[in-house]
Amino acid sequence: MSKQREIRLNAFDMNCVGHQSPGLWAHPRDRAWQYKDLHYWTELAQLLERGLFDGLFIADVLGIYDVYNGNGDAAIRQATQVPVNDPLALITPMAMVTQHLGFGLTASLSFEHPYPFARRLSTLDHLTQGRIGWNIVTSYLESGAKNIGQQTQTAHDVRYDYAEEYLQVIYKLLEGSWEEGAVLRDRAQRRFSDPSKIHPINHKGTFFNVPGMHLCEPSPQRTPVLYQAGASSRGRQFAAEHAECVFVALPSKSLLKNTVADIRRRAEEAGRDPHGIKVFNLHTAIVDETDKAAQAKWRDYRNYVSYEGALALISGWTGIDFAQYQPDQVLKHLHTNAIQSAVETFSTADPHREWTVQALADWVGIGGFGPLSVGSAQTVADELQSWVEETDVDGFNLAYAVTHETFADVVTWLVPELQQRGVYKQAYREGTLREKLFGEGDRLTVPHPGTGYRWPDDPQRVAS
Q1: Helix 377-391 vs helix 291-302: crossing angle, to nearest 10
Q2: Which of 75, 179, 394, 433 is deepest in the core (most CB within 10 A)?
Q3: What DSSP assignment string belongs to 66-124?
Q4: Domain spanning 8-182+192-305+372-449: which CATH class is it, in words?
Q5: Percent of the chain at pLDDT above 70?
Q6: Where do the domains of the chain lie?
Q7: pLDDT 10s digits, 133-168
């Protein structure tokens, strides 16, 4: 196989019991029930750093999966992403026990005003010394919208119009409110900051009016590394314009190849380097010393998969109540107000494959929508390399079947094999998360639209 660029790995987790493998919390070696204990997370962070993972990508939802049978009973019974705690509080203690691991925080801009949220981002970036990323999501659960006082979930594409203005406010606060050199720390003159270099943003828009200045001094990255996890057509356009990393969950190489190519094409049309955006696909790897041992582990895991929990997840993701279908029924495309790319992926996007409800539940049962690789380190490394070579994807967000076991197996078996092949780093780069990922400085780079909100004399500014 020809030499490839470096494969990037994130771990994919959530501050809950059952994340992407419904029912596996009942496995005797699974530790997910400890999600509420700090040592669970600090031990995971140290494990991932030993494996030179780029980051821990922390998912989140505000609301429950209550589409299946029209209520949340199945999700509650199977611990399908409920109970779920806030992800933000995890990051600072994990940063204290690591030096390099990045942290991708999922936070919905639909449910929090940008002014206090910008302060939270700056605080985390300070406390982690620049190891923060923000996964920008618009949220899709009707239950979440209703619990914060909305009558119903906003239409899919309108959520992205809202997101565009939300980011304008964030960029103005993080990039433009404090000029370079605004912080003096001059003890002799008793001047900590220069008021002439700190500015109110005076934002007046369709959704937000934010007159004031940002409350925080500039953090190491100012704007955290920007992730985006929407793969619909509107989501891809948003990603091409704003994202530095894109997270997708596609089950086949043909679908992933087309999506990656489309994101890179749109980025180029937006004036950005198409390969300056790193694309990660969801993937689950069950690894052991031999193929036989890994297959046995996989068969053991399958005994714990919850069909009900899988359909509760899929119903929530797609907005379709799968309780109304028989297991052998074939999916047909339906327009919904939830994750449109999820509906398309398993209905019309791949004309060469038909999905029944049972097949979809089986697929999602371990690792969610992404593909599953089972085998020795050599077998799984071959598979990951083939995905990179054939689809142009940059790396993978690795889900777990059993935690922390799945990640420990990757660190023990797979990482050394990838390193031996010369497709995985031997050490971290120094610097912030942005520098580790891109090697181009710790701030957003021209021509990213966020750089247009800096002050005119800032050398790292694109003309607006």
Answers
A1: 80
A2: 433
A3: --GGGSSHHHHHHTBS-SB--SHHHHHHHHHT-SS-EEEEEEETTSS-HHHHHHHHHHH
A4: alpha beta
A5: 89
A6: 8-182+192-305+372-449
A7: 999 987 655 665 677 666 555 566 777 888 999 999
